[in-house]
Structures
1.
Amino acid sequence: MDQAYFITESLRLNRFWLQIMSEHALFIREGLPCGETQLINEARQFEQLFAALKARADQTPNNREAVLALNRDVIPALDRFIAFKTNVLNRTITCRIGGFNYPLLMDHIRREAIRFRARLLELNNGISSPLAEMALEEEIFWLRIMGDHARFIAHLLDPSERPLVKQAQQFGKSFETLRLQGEDLQSMLVPRDYENHLLPADIMGCPLPPGFGNLQHPFVIPRLQRFNGEVIGATMEIRDFKATALALIERCQVLSLISPLLASHVLREAQMALEDLAMIERQLNKDRAE
């Protein structure tokens, strides 16, 4: 892996996602029942931990050793945070805890932490995926995140805000349609990814049993460029919707349970999605030119 890419991509991811992780801890804490003091204290500690790591990332020089050390410290912090999110999710879906953290919200923010951790591990170990596999993984990840955001917004707006609720619900449907399209392309072009989903989770990371792993390698077709353009277009639209919603919330011109920080949070994630998708677009264009 190119050293310059390792440095710039590690810092880009850390400087964005560490802030997001700190805010996740805050949102979890605010949604917990007031009697769950241990979980509330744990959430506050994670909020402070990731804020400190974010401050460190902002000061980390463009030096491989310093960036590698940062990544190595962030990964175990994410391990603990993923376990914490899992605990809250499991207690919620087994009716052992109340509060205002939707189960899908907990799953959503755990997915983001798992993906952030995976990207740092890939960078640290010099792992790269074939272009078609990487592009579809990124696109499907962000399509699901953006669709979740749309549905969360619809449920956090006051029911009297009918036009905005309807618009958010339509975004949810549009992203679901695109996500299913992406999964179709993924099974066509990356059959080994589908095969991997059929294996027990316990053997992930172990040598594959005989007969597995011999399907065709991922490959790029022109339809991938068009699909990436469709994903970018849809993400631009929801980004603009979120920007409008944030402005309305800040001026107290909309009835909702959405705080300015939460509105800013989902807007920043849409902007990050567009950054990632633009990187894919450049690589697809380069592949086509070659």
Note: The chain has two domains: 1-128, 129-290.
2.
Amino acid sequence: IELIKERNFSIAVDAVNSTGGIALPLLLQTLGVSQIEQYHCEPNGKFPRNPEPIPENLLDFSREIEKGNFDLGIVVDPDVDRLAFIQENGEPFGEEYTLVAVADYILENHPGGTTVSNLSSTRALKDITEKHGGTYHASAVGEVHVVEQMKKHQAVIGGEGNGGIIYPELHYGRDALVGIALFLTKLAKFGKSVSRLRASYPNYYISKQKIELTEDIDVDQLLAMIQEKYKRQPVNNVDGVKIEFDKEWVHLRKSNTEPIIRIYAESDTLATAEYLGSKIISDMKEIITNNQ
């Protein structure tokens, strides 16, 4: 707390008029932050925008940060279990990297520790974990599955790429308040700007696409055929089909409510990630055509 106080951070908070409007300012004050600017912190439940804390919903808030009056912007969702940061230059820190930064701090203090995230989360967490001599495990998508793997492997930190932080030393649930405290401690010890901290991590981009199918197509069979096509690559079928290509990957998940397969792909450029996803979509279309 003393280190955070010494840094004299100026922080803007957007709590989307949820209970976070009560909790976040109190937490920051307790942590020694005296310069706090509150946006949408009246807990009346009237959301001023789409409440999901993703970049396209935070454009106005990002413009406020970009003016140069703040060291950091903090955004939470209505139930305060998802956490996103805005860098001092107005650029998103990246919801995928919330967990990466927090895990980096935890692993500095628990070298060799284990981490867990879901199969659709960034590879950057694995990179950071291995940098600290630790072991990374991937779970099926969903908080309950992440927690299950965290307990199984006694992980020191875990979560999801949507900004969900799970710190088992306190409890096994996503908690933005815990994430804020850990992130500010990391930032204070780092001693430089948020953008410099973000630049210190491996840079990956995730593409999200989907293919709509007709009702007569056997989705499970289609996924099995894709798995067979790429059997020479590392494949994980715990939750759909995830294919790894060195430091790139593609994850295919079927919808349980409609004939759709969602395709997530990650690479070191967005263009390459989109290409990987498009290539798999092309493969599926070819399989469908050849089996008609």
Note: The chain has a mean pLDDT of 96.
